[in-house]
Amino acid sequence: MPNEFVGVLDRYIIHLKRENDNIEYKFYTNSSNTSINRQEEASSILSNYFQLSIKLTDLISQWSKSDQRFANNGIPLGIRVLAQDPLENLLSFICSSNNNVQRITKMIKSLCEQYGKEIGCFNGIIYHQFPTIGSIMKN
Questions:
Q1: What CATH class has 4-49+84-138?
Q2: Higher per-residue confidence, 39 vs 110
């Protein structure tokens, strides 16, 4: 569905759903299909990952002073600066070289399936954590 996203964040399967101006979220853990009841933990993980404490308008203002592309309203609505795991960020960046989003997504998914720890199944799809450097080096 266009207003939904299911993916992996740390050791959780996360389901985000947009309802009007609100985002509903549920975290699923391990092999259970029930959402975790640790609302505070889930909220903290999302807040940290999307860096919701940072005012994006302040960053845009700062960037606009040093780069004309930002000054000309070149920033899409809803963009965030993510607090992504450094290894995941680096390997995703390497995969992005001369590739499109669909191919990058496929490469990252294959990497996770091959070397990442299985988290569980949601809606018939098995999800894996992003692999550690140790799990990649073992193989």
A1: mainly alpha
A2: 110
